[in-house]
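Hi Y.,

Following your request, here is the sequence exactly as I used it, all 193 residues.
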Amino acid sequence: GTSAKSEKEQIINYIADFYLTRGVHTFLLQVSNYQFKDGGIRLPIHFGNYKQIQSYREIQIIIESLVFGFIGFMILTHFILFLLNRKDWSNLFFVILCICSFIYLYLRGARYLLGFFPDLEWDFYSKFLFAAAFSYGPVLFLFNHYLYPGLISKKICTIVKIAWGIFVLSVLIFSTSFFIKLLPIYEILIFPL
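Below is the corresponding structure, written out as tokens. Let me know if you'd prefer a different format.
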């Protein structure tokens, strides 16, 4: 779009199949970015024949599948460990940490998601992505707190839990343009953790 109002936020994961004739060619990609300062092209653009690009994409999906499988296995085993010993909250926070990692990595690449839902709305996508991103630091902090009890005061843990709740609720309740502005504040608050 030519303005913030006319811009349509979207995620594009596309293989364009076209043929070039001999000579000099210009590749022009126009991206507007009025909503999110870190938006734009995230991954490199690959050129080659269709089979090469498709093969590269399939290899990336296989690698991501292995990573997701390992994370899923860790989620399952640590959740079972938590069910066997409910007094040890570190296992539960490790499960939540793995779920946040899973969601963030799954959405960051978006290869699977866009394959199943090519018309996915940016707001829906960004809410899950930012909820996982905003959760990662506090959950890691709380995991360490429960893994090494007594090392960190309960007051600090309460403050972290409240801040975590505020940030995640802001993502779920407000529009993308609002909670993206909270990102620098979150980074300042999470840095000491």
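The first helix runs from residue 50 to 84.

Thanks again,
Q.
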